[in-house]
Amino acid sequence: MIVKRRQKYIPCLYQTDYWVVKHLNKFFRSELSKYITAGKYVCDIGCGEQPLRSVIEDLVGRYFGVDVVNNTKNNVDLIANIHTVPLPDNTFDVILCSEVLEHVMDVKNAFCELARLIKPGGHIVLTSPFAYPLHEEPFDYVRITPYMIRECSRAANLYIVHLGTTGNELEVIAVVWCNMWERMTSGSKSLTREILNAVMNIPVNFIILLLSGIFGNILPSKYFLSSVCVISKPCSCQRTY
Fold first, then answer.
1. What's the DSSP call for residue 233?
2. In Å, how far are 113, 118, 121, 148, 193 from 16, measured between CA atoms?
3. Torsion of CA 190, 195, 197, 200, to 10 degrees
4. What is the pLDDT, as a whole number, of residue 187?
């Protein structure tokens, strides 16, 4: 079975997921550049269409893709479930786990497997959607909060380097509206649907861009788009917290 997934993380105002992509693109480019250097062995787990492969390879990282199914390019290196990846302990310097955990039934176990695969002193760069519609059904199981990430990290003897959220209430509204419209027009012909979606998405995203710039700093951000974090496996001289 081949599942079509996100091809790239390049934000455009006409996109249904403009705000999701905008924030994730900024996060990935900032964090991956901190931890990937020449020769680092990088696992993209739940890699899908490998939208960040070029970023990793531009940083001269050694890319290795893992997923439960192959992609449309048929270039996933290892077909495996995140709960049981048939590779030795301490294999990777960096693990990327992007928009994957919502499709995992046992999140704590997944964290333990990530902890097993990462080398001591290595880093896991992880994102997970929060305010986002059902997708890849019926394999969409959970939305996790930063508090769940902290607890799962503690249970797996990992420690938090960075933990935060992306987006605010206004941006969530934009994503909900654009996704609602796209799904309502799903029966239209492809070109017609793309034009309709662009016509609806651009003004909504542009208005929210202006409003978020004005009011974003005072919004409570209790509704947000994604949880983003970097977690690390301690060396023997370090303690977890």
1. P
2. 33, 34, 38, 27, 12
3. -160
4. 66
